């Protein structure tokens, strides 16, 4: 990774001075284009050994760029969790909107590198973490977030010299103290081996590592200015991809061959009598109450996603669940059109922002699956966008599960006839009429398209960490008990792990 | 407060059943008006003794209303702080946008009531807390957030009976456990006395307490449905106040008499030579570095607001400050036009959302003072709106100071001639040209209006908790040193308290 960086790289003061004004002007002009277009954002990741000048680079870029659209995203001590949430939450939280630039000290590379150095993570664990990162970065790039990854390189002797100066100064920087345990010979040996895996796995065509020799300040800053300029130019060029206003794809009519529908396999005739229902629902509610109050639940969390046909009974099922939960510890998020802050970021951002702290419950009434359901069927996203969403969603749910959250997903299924009966009933009861919109009638016409989308969704996103539960919802009582029982089963299984 | 509630209040099942459908329909219709208008939001505060049915009321309203625009806002255990931030932060955080309804269990009344019951707060402290709340609620109401405050009343014997049932049940609710210490005879005596102060001070014309007899479920729910209906009707009626799109006031030309300008008292000729400057700025930076790294700072926090004429040097001053701070612990917020999520809430929301946890620093490049500066001068808000903003801002800063944050505010002042020189310089340097916009020239014409606004702002919001510092910024070096020295002085004074 560092071969060419080891050569001598210097820039004398006069050369830097003559080069700087033009570089600044060019950088600003292209930054203004970025701001005006609001099509993409840029994350600049700055890595390198202590003493290589990460802070100095930051300050330089603050001098050169329009600071009003520039943010520094830093994260706490390298091996600590943020606010009881999954590791990736804090990175999502700080993500700047399209048009802006975020500079990161302490990116998602930090934790695995730190754990690798300390020997908490073996080689294969580290490789797999790097592969997770590569997929994460691919998603960001495809969703409008460009990445510029800079590695400041110092010759080993120079790095040693600077580290010593830092740790012996009167004002020892806290960051150096925190990382001190990483500076033993063994730790540095492991880190140096890890660098190869980082370069091999995460240097992609869209986000290669830029190794910048950092021995000479002027050379370092001029180089970074140039690669930044190049990156911004590529991002703002005509034809650079943007997730905003993609070319809509025409809604595809399913082909003439009958396609398999997973929903057709459900036995919708299953029913529960009122007495049995009341007894069973009370039982399942008490199981859920008990599980979410158990002390072990404080280290877990529960994320529920409800999807289903219109009028399949999502809201009334959620109401039964609501009664089993402590109102201080859960929140329901009905998912409708995104706000402008949400539209200015990758689509998963609006869900990440609602991921609760451990010990809490989040219920999504419609969810991130909108991407591969309504957005796909209505042609609001390109086939490329919804096509890759399956993997992106699996990664997202995998990160939640990894952090100890129980992820439960329901599709509530009814027949077309039953839906018609419920629509008619909604029309006849004044206080239910609002639940029926012209859109519901339009959606009905697309029933076969939805069946195909649901089938593909279930096939591709039913993972061991987050399996789908298909719910026969023709009979509301049967559906409610099945949902609550599934939640109770999953919770109890998780807590007894 | 509870006189009439002590009478017998019942509603038989049949009467409830015949009343319910009409009530639901009316509630929904007026909720849809609220949603369509997006002019105001509603917070429903539900208080009352354990066992009075707060949870049941919540569930009932979830049945009756469109849940997609309904949120429950709950807060953790009553006497704990949220995420290391000031007490009010978590209430601001959950504030629903205009058009929506939030239901609160555990509102801002909880903490003072809890502390009063435990004797941690004396009578006068409690009265003063209630007065703070009254002003806070007045601000919310004026800024588009209506309040419906419901107190569920139970006869003392009935309350005792229900509490016993709750605490002895097999599934003891965690909330009851947490509040158990509040149920001693002495504690309840104090709470009962506190009720009078609550009623006297916080039952205002715009947000009176609604005492609802809660002995009979049907009567309780029907009553709440009716008062809610009435509230929603008043909120959506023509002529109901809304902070959105207020009637703009014409920009007032200052009257012919020369008005006093606080800025005219400044000696703008103060200068620093380069050598002195470099020595002094380094000294002040090291004081700030030391103070923000001190262990005592972890329980405090630093909030900086920068205001000043265009080209007065805010950004370059912030840059010098930035170098003194650990990038992991501060963030700069440039304040420009609000996003739609911000515009759908009271104006202070966009600043509360960025209030950092204790031990952190937030720097606002322009701030909440925009309300009484640019928004006033440009006629974007009514005189009523900016007129009451002084008090609202003092309360806001008071809450920050109360929570241990150091609040430092700067006005950077230059002369009109110096501004013209800097504009000209900006025009001549390519990479500075972007800093000059047509708006800057327009603002220049309004110089006297800004002088009047600044003078009134400083007079009315320079408090002991958060005094203004006027900075003679004609000489950039002098200004930078004065700013950094002020920050260092304030920090050191706070840490030695």
UniProtKB/TrEMBL annotation, chains A, B:
It catalyses: [phosphate](n) + ATP = [phosphate](n+1) + ADP. It comes from the Bacteria. Pfam families: PPK2 (PF03976). InterPro entries: P-loop_NTPase (IPR027417), PolyP_AMP_Tfrase (IPR022489), PPK2-related (IPR022488). Keywords: ATP synthesis. Gene3D superfamilies: P-loop containing nucleotide triphosphate hydrolases (3.40.50.300). Residues 22-235, 272-494 form the Polyphosphate kinase-2-related domain. PANTHER family: POLYPHOSPHATE:AMP PHOSPHOTRANSFERASE, POLYPHOSPHATE:AMP PHOSPHOTRANSFERASE-RELATED. This is Polyphosphate:AMP phosphotransferase. It comes from Xanthobacter agilis.
């Amino acid at each position: 990774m560092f071969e060419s960086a080891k050569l001598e790289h210097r820039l004398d003061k006069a050369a830097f001075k003559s080069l700087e004004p033009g570089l600044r002007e060019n950088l600003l002009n292209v930054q203004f284009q970025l701001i005006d277009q609001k099509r993409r954002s840029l994350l600049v990741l700055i890595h390198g050994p202590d003493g290589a000048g990460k802070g100095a680079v930051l300050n330089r870029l603050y001098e050169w760029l329009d600071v009003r659209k520039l943010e520094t995203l830093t994260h706490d001590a390298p091996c600590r969790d943020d606010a009881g949430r999954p590791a990736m939450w804090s990175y999502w939280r700080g993500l700047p909107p399209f048009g802006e630039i975020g500079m990161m000290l302490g990116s998602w590379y930090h934790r695995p590198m730190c754990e690798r150095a300390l020997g908490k993570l073996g080689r294969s664990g580290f490789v797999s973490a790097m592969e997770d990162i590569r997929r994460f970065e691919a998603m960001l790039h495809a969703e409008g977030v460009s990445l510029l990854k800079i590695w400041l390189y110092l010759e080993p002797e120079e790095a040693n010299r600077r580290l010593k100066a830092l740790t012996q100064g009167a004002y020892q920087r806290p960051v150096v103290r925190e990382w001190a345990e990483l500076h033993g010979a063994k730790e540095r040996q492991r880190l140096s081996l890890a660098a190869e895996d980082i370069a091999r796995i995460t240097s992609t065509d869209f986000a290669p590592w830029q190794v910048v020799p950092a021995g000479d300040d002027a050379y370092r800053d001029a180089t970074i200015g140039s690669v930044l300029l190049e990156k911004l130019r590529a991002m703002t060029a005509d034809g650079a991809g943007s997730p905003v206003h993609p070319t809509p794809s025409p809604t595809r009519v399913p082909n003439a061959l009958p396609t398999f529908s997973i929903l057709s396999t459900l036995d919708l005739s299953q029913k529960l009598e009122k007495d049995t229902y009341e007894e069973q629902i009370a039982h399942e509610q008490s199981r859920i109450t008990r599980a979410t109050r158990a002390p072990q639940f404080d280290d877990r969390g529960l994320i529920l996603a409800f999807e289903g046909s219109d009028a399949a009974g999502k809201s009334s099922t959620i109401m039964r669940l609501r009664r089993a939960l402590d109102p201080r510890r859960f929140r329901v998020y009905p998912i409708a059109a995104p706000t402008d802050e949400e539209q200015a970021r990758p689509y998963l951002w609006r869900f990440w922002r609602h991921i609760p702290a451990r010990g809490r419950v989040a219920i999504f009434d419609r969810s991130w699956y909108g991407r591969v359901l309504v957005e796909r069927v209505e042609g609001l996203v390109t086939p490329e966008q919804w096509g890759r969403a399956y993997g992106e969603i699996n990664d997202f749910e995998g990160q939640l599960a990894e952090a100890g959250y129980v992820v439960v997903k329901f599709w509530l299924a009814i027949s077309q006839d039953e839906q018609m009966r419920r629509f008619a009933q909604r029309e006849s009861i004044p206080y239910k009429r609002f639940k029926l919109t012209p859109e519901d009638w339009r959606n009905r016409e697309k029933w076969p398209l939805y069946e195909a989308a649901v089938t593909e969704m279930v096939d591709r996103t039913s993972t061991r960490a987050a399996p789908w539960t298909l719910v026969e919802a023709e009979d509301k009582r049967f559906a409610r008990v099945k949902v609550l029982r599934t939640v109770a089963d999953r919770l109890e299984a998780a807590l007894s792990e």
